[in-house]
Amino acid sequence: MIKSDRVTLAGAFGHELAARLDRSQEEPRAYALFAHCFTCSKDLKATARISRALVERGIAVLRFDFTGLGESEGDFADTNFSSNMQDLLAAVDFLRSTYQAPKLLIGHSLGGAAVLAMASQVPEVLAVATLGAPSDPQHLSEGILRSAPELEASDEAEVVLGGRPFRIRRQFLDDLANQGVLAAVKKMNKPLLVLHSPLDEVVDIDHARQIYQAARHPKSFVSLDTADHLLMKSAADAKYVAEVLSTWAGRYLGDGEAPKQTATGEAAAPAPKLDHGEVWVSGGGTGFRQRIRAGEHELVADEPVSVGGGDAGPNPYDYLLAAVGTCTNMTLRMYADRKGWPLEGVDTRLRHAKIHAKDCEECQTESGKIDLIEKEIEIRGPLSEEQRARLLEIAGRCPVHRTLTSETVIKSRLA
Question: Do 132 and 215 share a domain, yes or no?
């Protein structure tokens, strides 16, 4: 049985956004976030059909109305492409904090461009799919200006879109002109499915070609033959999209046999079952992007673009510093709680560098270079100077700190 629960979340401007969470009675194996088309709503029939098919595959789907649309609060005239992305990130945070971060992003039309632009900001996402998406959101400006040429000279005008009137401000067009969707696609480094109709009269199919060419492998393109832009002409079109999308997504969310790695790209391998204390890291056939699984938590690591990576996540040394910092803060929290001290919070800023051994007065090594990790710790709360000094001393005793400063043996073997 499929349930469709009404939920609300706070959007980019703080307004309440209306949403539906579609799921089955069983615990879902993954969550998906669906971004609808420009001026559409979460209740578009095609969106509902696609969502239902994914639920039948064990994937829960959150679909919501952007600010000022459908049942959501706010003034549509205040919104733009950037605020839509912020609404999407707010929906991601809602899923992450309430249920589970989405592993699949789906975007229709301008919603597709939005998920492409923000996908790299969600490390938990394992796959992205677009439907009739533009490669350059600015193409929308041409249609708007044809409908309301007065926007060339004025700050606001009424535009009829899809048979309905909308108030649009000049800032919306200016924001569209500043979006670089294809640049985001090039660095996204996530499996991508592009669905587009060659007869789409709203977004020309050449946009699909540009998105596909910009993306890295693994990537797939599916032609929707005679479908219209909103998949309204035939229920069979929406059903076909739903079947293709749910089957394709299953490959990257652990449904069936995992796709093999190829010389032209990478495919997401299913994560193994891990014992407590184990961490699993998986890399593909190209690039530096790595999937990390620690317990039930999914993380991503990568290298910056400047050294050939996709910048999809922190690099290994960033994670090392994060381990030291989190361990430091947790250790101080446990110590202060045990002592009953009024510690209100700890902020630790860390830096890593390679320095010459001769420049380190406390080091036993006398030649060559050594690794230096600096910790700048801010302790908040009405603590005495003696308590602060003691906490600084305790900061050097956190388990990860001691691991790095003691003899550590790392053994490697082939699985």
Answer: yes
The CA-based angle 102-106-108, given to 5 degrees, is 150
Same domain assignment for residues 390 and 248: no
Residue 84 lies in a domain: yes
Residue 52 sits in a domain of what CATH number? 3.40.50.1820
CA 81, 84, 88, 94 torsion: positive or negative? positive
What is the identity of the amino acid at 142? E
14 within domain boundaries: yes
Total residues belonging to the chain: 415
- Which of helix, strand or coil describes residue 98? helix
Q: Of 236, 252, 268, which marks where a domain is finished?
A: 252
What are 283-324's pLDDT values in tens digits? 876 678 888 888 877 788 888 878 877 777 899 999 999 999
Both 234 and 323 in one domain: the answer is no
Strand ranges (E), 162-206:
164-169, 192-196
Q: Which residues contact 195 (CB under 8 A, 6 or more apart)?
A: 129, 130, 131, 132, 221, 222, 224, 241, 244, 245
CA–CA gap between residue 66 and residue 38 (Å, rounded): 9
CA distance 202 to 207: 11
Query: Residues 335-345: pLDDT tens digits?
Result: 999 999 999 99
Query: What is the structure's pLDDT at 63?
Result: 93
C-alpha 58/C-alpha 247 separation (Å) is: 11
Q: How far apart, in Å, do the first and last CA atoms of the chain sit?
A: 42
Domain of 399 in residue numbering reads as 316-405
Q: Which amino acid is at 363?
A: C
326-331-336-342 Cα dihedral, nearest 10 degrees = -10
Judged against a pLDDT cut of 90, whether residue 363 lies above it is answered with no
Q: Are 35 and 107 in contact (CB under 8 A)?
A: yes
> Which of 274, 273, 293, 275 is closest to 283 using CA atoms?
293
Residue 171 lies in a domain: no
Cα(294)–Cα(273) distance, integer angstroms: 10
Task: Give how many domains the chain has, as a whole number.
Answer: 2
| Residue 63 within any structural domain of the chain | yes
CA 391 to chain centre: 36
Weakest mean pLDDT among 181-185, 212-216, 249-253: 249-253
Q: Who has greater pLDDT, 78 or 386?
A: 386
Could you tell me the pTM of the whole model? 0.61
Asked whether residue 162 carries a pLDDT value surpassing 70, the answer given is no
Of 198, 224, 252, the residue at which a domain comes to its end is 252
In percent, how much of the chain has pLDDT > 90?
38
